[in-house]
Amino acid sequence: MEIKSYSLPEKLDDFVKFPFKLYKGSPYEKFWVPPLISEAKKMLSSKNPFWKHAKIKIFLAQDNGKIVGRCAAIIDRNHIKVHNEKCGFFGFFDCINDVAVAKSLLDEVKKFLKSEGMEIIKGPANPSANDEYGLLIEGFDSSPVIMMTYNPPYYIDLIEKSGFKKAKDLYAWIRSAHDDAPPRIARIVEMVKKRENIKVRPLDMKNFQRDVQHFKDIYNSAWEKNWGFVPMNDDEIDFMAAGMKPMVDPRIFHFLEVNGVPVAATLAVPDYNFVLKKLDGKMGPIGIIKFLYWKRKIKLVRLMALGVKKEFRGKGFEAVLYHEMLQSCRKYGYPEGGELSWTLEDNDLINKGVVAMGGILYKKYRIYEAGLST
């Protein structure tokens, strides 16, 4: 068994397609969601503006020429600047159930990051906190929602026996739309809307770029002090928005305005993982037909982000956003409701608010870390 490193786009096809072989026929195949191969390659290509301020080296573990594991070393210069720490990341980790293979892979990632001057390693990040983030540690009996990760339970053992410890846990919550919001919450929401003169409006698809800019301003303001957060620049926001635009249902994407100015927003999209499970990574002519058919049957929404500008926090705007999303799910045909992911384990204000709205903690993810001094 040997570990080989490559600079993309070398071995990109093998790197992207390895998980398809790993999960095929495994007990976890029914839960894992195959990504669109074309989108996975695009994420790792120069088309993704993230790589203008980041670099990547990929590693493949090979046993007699057969790939048995993959991982990437990632250095994000923006993260280093924002958090003032020489931190690199591991990401896109997939491996057979063999500690020796996993440890060899992750050791090579550590060596590379150390050679680049990094002092700590965190992950998994695919490739950053603004994308797929964290290792699933609880909730293996259901598929992930769009842009959330899935992995077999044995990955926990592989990573921890490779010298990593917990850095932070991330929570995923779910809330059915079958039930009304608690009466007390509904009363509070109406009181806040009246007191703060709040206007609620959906995403305006005719002015999509304008609203993207509004959301960017809210998002970067709302999350600036969060653990691990790195603001997205204009190019990254535009790249994400272009990729998500075909998936957006503007009726479930809300802005809160005060005196005509957007001050809070939710980013919510239908759970297209329900559709991706039918496509096996391909979007040819048959795939397009399947996509159009199955997208109409999506019953769940993912609330990807919720933000309130700092000067409007502590006034109940978060409760208004939660309530509007629940009402929209009920009204527009998403009876399974909303999945909110992710929140930080120690963000007590947000987590208590989710529980008050009837949210149930149903999955946990973990970011790991290790020192690179030895």
Can you give me a brief rundown of this structure?
By secondary structure, the protein is α+β, with helices and mostly antiparallel strands. It is 34% helix and 29% strand.
Helix and strand arrangement:
Elements: E1 2-6, H1 12-23, H2 37-43, E2 54-63, E3 66-76, H3 77-83, E4 87-95, H4 99-115, E5 120-123, E6 125-126, E7 132-133, E8 135-138, H5 154-160, E9 165-175, H6 183-195, E10 198-202, H7 208-223, H8 234-244, E11 254-258, E12 261-270, H9 273-276, H10 285-295, E13 300-308, H11 317-331, E14 337-344, H12 348-356, E15 360-371
Parallel strand pairs: 4-5, 13-14
Antiparallel strand pairs: 1-2, 2-3, 3-4, 5-15, 6-7, 8-15, 9-14, 9-15, 10-11, 11-12, 12-13
Which key phrases capture this entry?
374 residues; 2 domains; alpha+beta; 29% strand; 12 helices; single chain; Aminopeptidase
